[in-house]
Every structure is written in structure tokens, then in C-alpha cells.
User: Which sequence fits this backbone?
């Protein structure tokens, strides 16, 4: 789960990744991992997952989330392949890759984002944001422009969203003006949570709201 705020006139683009094991109040379910909000809703009624995830964020984080975008795993692969792969420049070894330049196809990019080799959810969140920024940076290069139609087609087939079409140009322009280096991308860190084991033996993360709330105010407050 990634919370994104875009203010086109500034432009301001903020991204905050939320650990999937964060232990929260899931409306209609009770205390559970935050990622189960989508799972349980979809199991009950197909297509209701995004709204349930948004409602869970609202209840626990106190944020009004107007829009969502849901990318399926198969669609993620298609988008990366339509781009001709995504170029990563790693400063240090991670997720089974050596430091240096790499070009990942769709399967490799998904494996990188979901890698469990020597990494926990905090590393996976960082990997996901690294991929997003790398893909954005790559699409700004003139040599990538001929691939834009194929990428847009893959996006249209792979992303579910309630974002009105008339807002797409404004948000796209804001992203271009901010550039990949102008995006404030962060994750909830180990300082924001306390590891805990439930009575059922599940390893989860208890939110430290005294640490989280100032971050939310800084990134998403007025």
C-alpha cells in the first residue's frame, strides 16, 4: 500500500509506503493486518477491495483518500515489459542483485519488489519505491518515448482506478514538473512500529501513532 498526494499547482508529490503487516482496525473485520482489508472485501464481493482498503486507511490514519489505483501482479509484469524493462542502478547489493546497473524484465522486476531473500517488509517497501522512481526516470528519456503507446495500453489493461479521466493530465503534468528527484518518497520505518506476536502466532507490527502522526501531518497535512 502506498499513499500518494499530488498538489499540481506547487507541484508537490509525496509517497508513503505502509507495511502490509501493520496491525490495525479493519472495518467489519476487527484487528488484523492492514492488507487483509482488501482480501476479505474481495472474498465477500469482487471489486470491493479498493474501497475497503481506502476505508481502512481513513479509519486508522485519519486521512481522506479520494481516489485509488490498483495494479495487479500480472499487469505489473506487462507494464514493465512494455517499457522494454526497467533500468536500476543499485548503490549496494540487494535482493540477490549485485551493486551496479541492471535491466529487469517484468518477471525480474516483480521478483525484486517482492524479494524475501535477506529482506523484510521494510526493504520490500523501499524496493517498490525504487522501481517506481526508476520507471518514471526512464520514461522521461527520449529513447523511451516510442514505447509510451504500448505502456499506456498495458496500463489501461492492468490498472483499476476511480480517478476521473479529466484529472489525468493535471496529475501527469505535476509529476513531470516535480521530476523523479522531486518526489518525497518515504516508508513507515522500524521506529514507527513495534514488532508483536499475536495469540495465533502471527508476527505483526503494532503502529506507534505518536511517531506516525507527525509524519502524516508533515506529508499530508495543510
Assistant:
Amino acid at each position: 500500500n502506498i499513499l500518494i498526494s499530488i498538489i499540481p499547482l506547487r507541484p508537490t508529490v509525496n509517497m508513503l509506503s505502509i507495511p502490509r503487516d501493520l496491525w490495525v482496525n479493519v472495518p467489519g473485520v476487527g484487528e488484523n493486518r492492514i492488507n487483509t482489508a482488501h482480501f476479505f472485501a474481495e472474498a465477500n464481493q469482487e471489486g470491493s477491495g479498493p474501497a475497503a482498503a481506502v476505508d481502512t486507511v481513513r479509519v486508522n490514519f485519519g486521512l481522506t483518500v479520494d481516489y485509488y489505483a490498483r495494479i495487479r501482479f500480472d499487469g505489473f509484469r506487462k507494464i514493465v515489459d512494455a517499457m522494454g524493462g526497467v533500468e536500476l542502478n543499485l548503490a549496494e547489493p540487494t535482493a540477490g542483485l549485485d551493486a551496479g546497473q541492471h535491466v529487469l524484465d517484468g518477471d525480474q522486476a516483480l521478483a525484486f519488489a517482492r524479494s524475501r531473500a535477506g529482506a523484510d517488509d521494510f526493504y520490500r517497501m523501499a524496493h517498490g519505491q525504487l522501481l517506481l522512481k526508476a520507471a518514471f526516470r526512464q520514461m522521461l528519456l527520449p529513447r523511451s518515448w516510442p514505447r509510451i503507446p504500448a505502456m499506456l495500453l498495458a496500463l489501461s489493461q492492468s490498472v483499476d482506478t476511480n480517478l476521473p479521466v479529466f484529472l489525468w493530465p493535471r496529475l501527469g503534468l505535476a509529476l513531470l514538473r516535480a521530476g523523479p528527484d522531486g518526489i518525497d518518497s518515504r516508508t513507515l520505518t522500524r521506529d514507527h512500529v513495534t514488532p508483536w506476536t499475536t495469540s495465533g502466532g502471527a508476527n505483526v507490527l503494532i503502529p506507534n501513532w505518536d511517531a506516525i502522526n507527525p509524519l502524516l501531518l508533515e506529508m499530508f497535512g495543510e
Helices lie at 36-44, 49-61, 73-82, 106-113, 121-139, 148-158, 168-178, 209-220.
